[in-house]
Structures are given as C-alpha cells and as structure tokens.
Amino acid sequence: MSFKELGLSEPILQSLEELDHLKPSEIQEQAIPIILAGKNIMAAAQTGTGKTGSFVLPILEMLHEHPTPYAKNAHALILTPTRELAAQVRENVHKYGKFTNIKSTAVFGGAKIFPQKSKLKKGVDILVATPGRLLDLVNQKAVKLDRVKILVLDEADHMLDMGFIHDIKKIIAMTPPIRQNLLFSATFSPEIKKLAQSLGEDLIEISAQSPNTTVSKIKQMVYHVDKNKKNDLLAHMIKEEQWDQALVFSRTKHGCEKIADYLNAAGIETGTIHGDKTQGARTKALREFKGKLVRVLVATDVAARGIDISNLPFVVNFDMPTYPNDYIHRIGRTGRAGQEGTAISFMSSDEHKFLRGIEGLLKIKIDQTSHEAFKPNEKPSTGGRGNPRSRGPRGGKPSFSRNRRSSDSKPGNSFSKPGGGSARPSNSSGKPNTSGSGRPSYGGKPKTGAAGRPERSRSGKPNISRDGKPSSGGRPNASGSGKPSYGGKPKTGAAGRPSSGKPKSAGNSANKPFNKNKGSKPKTSWKKN
Known about the structure:
Layout: H1 10-18, H2 26-36, E1 41-44, H3 51-63, E2 74-79, H4 83-96, E3 104-107, H5 113-120, E4 124-129, H6 131-139, E5 150-154, H7 156-161, H8 165-174, E6 180-185, H9 190-199, E7 204-207, E8 218-224, H10 230-240, E9 246-249, H11 253-265, E10 270-273, H12 279-290, E11 296-299, E12 314-317, H13 324-331, E13 341-347, H14 352-362, E14 367-370
Parallel strand pairs: 1-6, 1-7, 2-4, 2-5, 3-4, 5-6, 8-13, 8-14, 9-11, 9-12, 10-11, 12-13
Helix pairs in contact: 2-3, 3-4
C-alpha cells in the first residue's frame, strides 16, 4: 500500500517523495485511515517505526485546507515529555508540510519565553509543547486551548513516568469536550490504559507489533565488565572496531561528563547532552553529532525519547537502565526506519538485577559475553552492611559500654568519670555510694583531694580508720543534714581530707571559717568595688 492509497493529498505526497519516504510503515498503514475518519485511537508502536509520522501526516491532511486559527489559538495540540522530542516532532511537521500553508511552532522550557509568546499571537495550526511550559503560557494568557480540535499525547508513558499526570489532566480540562483524541506510546501499562479511558470510551486500540518489544533488526549484546574498567572498554571498542558514530547512555549527569572527559582525553571527539545543559548547548551538541563533527554523544535518559538520527550504527548502555522500559527507548535510537543497528550494554557484577528485569519485560534472553582484558574481578556488593569483620553492629566504630569496669577492659576502651575513676563506684558492697538521703553521692563535680584525684590514702586504697573499718561505713563524708558534702568545689583540710559542711571544733584552727563572728562562710557581695 502507498501513501496515496491511504488518502493523502498531493502537497504532502510531494514532501514525502522529496524525503524518499515511498512506502508507509505498519503503524502508519493502520493509524492514518482511522485518524482521517475522525476517530479516537490508542496506538502502540515500537520506537523507530514511523510512529511520529502516523499522526503528523493525517493532521496535516485535515488542516492544510482549514481556515486560519484565531489569535492565540491552535487547531491541533501535541504534548511531548521532553524538549528534544518536542523539537523533533515540530521538525517533522515542518518537513512533511513543506508544500502546505500550515503554521506550526514548538514551546518548551529551557528557552526564552518571549519569542514563544510572539509566535502565538497570531495563532498557529499545530502547537507542539511540553506540559510545564504550556501551562506557563496559559497562565500568562499567551495561548488559549478552548478551540483545540485535535489533542495528541505522544510518548504518554514517559509523561506519566516524569510525573506530568496532573499537568496533563489540567490541560485536558482546558480543551473543549468535543475533540479528537490520539494517544501514542512505545509501551503500554495499566496507567496508560487508565489515562486513555479518561479521554473517552470510544478509543480504537491498535498496535503494529506486540507492546513492550524491540525492533528485531537491532543486534543486542551484554558485556560483563569490571565497574572501574568501563571507560577503558568503551575507548578500546571505539578505536579497535573503528566506530564512526555512537550514542552512549549514562544513568547520571555527572557520569556523562566523566565519560566525555575520559574519551576526549583519549583523542575521541565527544559531546554531552543532559538536564544541566542549557537548551542552546543541548541543541548545539545534537547538531554537531548529527553532522558527525563529534564521534560520540553521551546522554541521559531524558534525551532518549527525542534523538532521531538516521542510520545510527551503535548505541551503548554504559550503565544498565534502572527501569526496563528505558532500555526499549534507549536502543530504539538505532535500527530506525527498517535499518540495522547494534545495542551494547556494559554490565558490572552489581547490575545483574537490571538485566533480569529487561529480559522479563522483553521475554527474551540477551546474548552475553566479555572481553578478556576487562573481565569483572569484583564481588557483588553486600547490600550496604559494611565490613563483616567490623566490631560494631553495622560496620561502624567499636561500641563502648559505659557500664564496663575499668579493670575489665584495656586502657582507653572504656569511659570513666572525671578524675580518672572507673565508671562504677567501687565500695566494699559493690553498690553505689549514697548519702544519708539515699541519693547517689556524686552529684556535680567529684570530691577530690589536694592532687585533684579521688580521695585515697598514700597506699592507693580508700581511707580506713584505725580499727580496720572503712571510714564513715564505706559511705562518703556527709554533713549533719545527711546531704553529700561535695556540692560545688570540695573543701579540704590540712590532711587533704574533705571537711564537712559545718566547722569543726575550735581546737582545729586550720578548719576555722573565714567569718569569725558568725561562724559561717563569708557572704558574696555582687556590688562593684
């Protein structure tokens, strides 16, 4: 079947002939007649099978003889998840509608908003937008959605993954209830079907091949490699096998820059594209890669849905994708439009779980191999449990018990009370020393002798009386009130022993109070001298 038999007019056929698109793909054969009939569809197609053309071509056919839209309005609204995909769809609209009078534009974040607002002033036939920037323009009253006739959700599964579901519902509510709904996705999930039901119950479900599959012409291979040797293996394969162009996917933005720095240092021209780049830098890097000014482009998954490069020979998963659906979209950058391609994945020993998820989704077994010089030699991680030989419960510092006696442990391995004593008070009964009130006897600072140590005799043993019994019955010296005698700074007598709270007899002149008249401690005066 040809494009003319599908019902496309001469201006569009002329542009297709100029682009050397002579035969429609399977998804285009199914979708174009249904869309031209004005029906709603939910279509699933593999990445790189002409999915974009399956809705752009019939929209151009329906609108190229349609009246000019009102100011700040659009006849058709196409929502995409990423900037790159929005720019790619708009480029396809421009190429396919080259010989028509269709006006189109793309609006997305990361670019200046004022030029976008000026393009919308007179209205456009086809508006391609990302959800966030479109809502910004609506809030600034730069665009109206109450006259939209066709609503397209492209890569709907990825928009849900990125958390755009609430923005999509807001946008749908702004459009008129009577409209044509077109939902396209490379993969189907229960969430996608639930979203499709919210658009209407009369959606026709079509699928070029079974959902969640990859193009059969893509050769897939997994290399077992040491985690620290991935850069070496990548540079080795590019040089030895003389790759002229390769797209490398990294899991993180920082990883993109590290890979690019290594390859550039090895003499391989490399560019990067990720979320931290400005829109101008991303567009420039993509343009240089398409023009083969650089051999390698390193990107994150954000760019996986918007890179359309004809005859791209190699795609490399430097890091195994966390989500199996991302694997489908990554390797879908090669083998496009019936061409052959190769998808290579580097897998370290801690990434086997990602491979199991991918094979479970695709329901196939991917060939695995390794390079002799870059075989993995590390063991799988222990799940973050730390060093099993560590003395601590979680592999951290050794645990110290405050209840351990100093005599039972090595020096420095137990905590002791200020003054050098052990953590537990030691007396003849093994119980804590208490005062007459039943409270522990060491509140505040410990009672020390003249040398700053706990009160002991010269032999190092606790002071005892002449009859061999511990002084004060093994309890600390207390005042007449039964309270411990060492609150605040300890008072010591001539023998280095602490004195009680009350002054002793007059015979002991060394322990007489300072105030001779009142027989008590001198009062502290807070007045300035």
